TrEMBL record:
Name the UniProt record assigns to this protein: NADPH:quinone reductase
Top-level taxonomic group: Bacteria
Species, as recorded: Streptomyces silvensis
Pfam families membership: ADH_N (PF08240), ADH_zinc_N (PF00107)
Signal sequence region: none
Assigned keywords, A-Z: NADP, Oxidoreductase
Amino acid sequence: MRAVAVYRHGGPEVLTPTEWAAPAPGPGDVLVDVAAIGVNYHETYERSGLYPRALPYVPGRELAGVVAALGADVTGLAVGDLVATADTPAPGAYAEQAVLPADRVVRVPGGVSAEQAAAVLLQGLTVHALTQDSHPVRAGETALVHAAAGGVGLILTQVLRSLGVRVIGTVSTAEKEEAALQAGADEVVRYTEVDFATEVGRLTGGDGVDVVYDAVGGTTFRGSIASLRPRGTFVLYGQSSGKVPPIDLSTGTRGSIKLTRPFLPDFIATPDELRTRSAAVFAWMLRDNLHVRIGRRYALADAGTAQSDLQQRRTVGKLLLMP
């Protein structure tokens, strides 16, 4: 079958279109004909070697597709079901087919397409954990959302606004500012033109925000801490600009702050957690009109271009590979 493999660590150029042995489902597995693949920062961390992984491998952890075959002892699923997954041990999503543990896939409800499922599930699960667990938000709070026009940022902004939270978003371009505003951001700061921490201070009358959601990391970390109100919460859930520097919490300019580093697998560790949170994500789409913006679709062989565009912040919304 056609796939994209990583044979050595490096930049996007190491993503190699190749022929890969077609998988076969074992007991408890399902074979899925892949219809759409989500492109995520996690794959870039593995590809670079930041997150160690044995070579060679087929990357990718988020996909949607149709069940083509069932392994022994699989119940609750049938051939022809549209299913999706967002985090399995090693799904190898960058391929025409993938074998997945049956208890790590979720059935996609009617009214949600394969593309929508692949575009929303990982980011939606992340947003659910961020807003329900990392910092359970309350109406009337103010949140700072970095990368507000990214895949997570656009969903996070919509969900926060639906919960009655004021959202200050940061973006880099006029196009991304418009996307963040359309998602419901109350104010948008172009961090390429002004110091975002100073601007947040102005927008909050010097009080700071209740929570910062930061997937950028290295370049935003100190400004994020400075943007918090006393007893505020800093949620670091990514590091697209690199690792965060050390911080001396004994000399911070904000007092009594909380810092947390959520890791999605910890919040979907059991099949019941995965199903419950996935149902909530799909309900946001079907009941609450959550809009999932697909920024661009790429051929499977163009996975390197997709990852490069993601890392260079050249797109708005979710990127998909199409086998």
